[in-house]
């Protein structure tokens, strides 16, 4: 496996009782095995167990709450997420924003449970701030490009290179992903050329007529 990472966020695109998530995860696994690039998937909370127990690939939670065991209602508890089979979590996705203090607490909560952390950011300044908190990855995604089909690597390359430079300066152990509008092989290739180690993406693959064909295109130029 290369050190490139692709994380496919299923958001709330798929209805049903998890069969759709398993099917897309299976496509991710097959393409990952074919191309040697790590591909993870972030399903709905209630699908984590089903996906992780049926498909051998890295499963991420779409978020978590920094609460422990006990008197907490309506929260995404880290131990349940981990026991369901997740290996990591997104934090502060632009569709699930947190305060700085909660980002910090979520990273600590995930790290204490040995879950990998991907903190989403919206610009260079927030990428720098996130890097200071020491997650495994910062994923920079300009919100206006999310779901647009216009790839960040083409529309706003500066936010990727700026985030890579800022993160490297502040905490070289943190790796940078980028996302928003990524769907094609040329988008992933450009993202890597800009210095990121991979991509966080969703609609271009999940909404494709055939997600496996879309994934094969995505990895075709690296
Ligand atoms: O989590 C994924 C990002 O929000 C990107 O979404 P998108 O690929 O649909 O633009």
Compact description:
Helix content is 41%, strand content 16%. It has 222 residues and is α/β, with parallel strands linked by helices.
What are the main properties of this structure?
single chain; 222 residues; alpha/beta; TIM Barrel; 8 strands; globular; binds glyceraldehyde-3-phosphate; Triosephosphate_isomerase_arc; Aldolase_TIM
General description of the model:
It is a single chain. With 222 residues, the chain is of the alpha/beta class. It has one domain: Aldolase class I (TIM Barrel, Alpha-Beta Barrel), CATH 3.20.20.70. The model has no long low-confidence stretch (mean pLDDT 97). It has an 8-stranded parallel sheet with strand order 2-1-8-7-6-5-4-3. It is globular, with a radius of gyration of 16 Å. The two termini are 13 Å apart. The protein has helices spanning 19-35, 48-54, 78-84, 100-112, 124-132, 152-155, 157-170, 185-193, 203-206, 211-218, and strands at residues 5-9, 38-42, 60-61, 88-91, 116-121, 137-140, 175-179, 198-201. It binds glyceraldehyde-3-phosphate (G3H).
Largest sheet composition: 8 strands, parallel
Number of strands: 8
- Report strand order across the widest sheet: 2-1-8-7-6-5-4-3
CATH superfamily: Aldolase class I
CATH topology: TIM Barrel
Q: How would you sum up the global shape?
A: globular
Pairing-aware structural class of the strands and helices?
A: alpha/beta
CATH architecture: Alpha-Beta Barrel
Would you list the SSEs in sequence order as H and E? EHEHEHEHEHEHHEHEHH
What is the gyration radius calculated from CA atoms? 16 Å
N-to-C CA distance: 13 Å
